[in-house]
Amino acid sequence: MIEEELPSPEELMPLSQTLITPRLALAFDIPSPNHRPRQHQPPPPYAQPIPADLGDLVSGAGGDEPPRTLKRPRLVWTPQLHKRFVDAVAHLGINNAVPKTIMQLMSVDGLTRENVASHLQKYRLYLKRMQGLSGGNGGATADPTTDHLFASSPVPPHFLHPVPGPQQQHHHHQQQRIAAAVGHPQLVAQYHRQMGQFGSSPNGQFEHPYLGKQPPIHNQAPSSNGNGGIKALTLFPTGE
DNA sequence: GTCAAAATAT
DNA sequence: CATATTTTGA
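Structure tokens for the assembled complex are given below, as produced in the milestone run.
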């Protein structure tokens, strides 16, 4: 009976720098094609008001090369974020459930295609696993021990079918914008947290203390691609 | 030291 | 874009 998220007035923790867009920082970085194409959103455990000690950072003129010792932490997929991921995929449909689309639909700042792609891969394997286990087997559902994060999110029913039919929708006229006017959710990624007195839900539903709620992705019927006047929704024009 | 999750490479 | 492999975190 619970299917709608509860939009609590609580917001996520204020990030240090809200003025610096990751893109700008990204422009400064990227010395090599394959290094670490990730925006740096450093959640400093220590409040860093940016001391006026830029000394060697900027140096005089010509000093460029940004701090080389800045390594970026890994992405932490919190259940909420995964929920949003599933939500986006569910609303897009298997047909359009591609990393790029998902990423854009999620509108999560700091999230890149690679992140989504990787998670999507795992998600697909999780679904496949569940399918294989459901065949001729009664009772044994997903083990709480396997797929920790995935188990926390309800899997939409329409995920279990590959594709209804090769029906091509040639109605490229109406494009509907969805959840594009949302604010700018920030991605929370920390190095590692030690769940001190947090967590410990006896019923298996573990939760993460961080990451508040993201702007809801309003949407309706998924990919009811049944022929007829079904309106499949398409994504907005190429954004990023 | 092991397993899982994320990143990266193909 | 999907899959496989490697790396990193727990």
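Residues 195 and 208 of chain A are 8 Å apart (CA to CA). Residues 74, 98-100, 117, 120-121, 124, 191-192 of chain A lie near DNA strand C (CB under 10 Å from a C1'). Further analysis is deferred to the final report.
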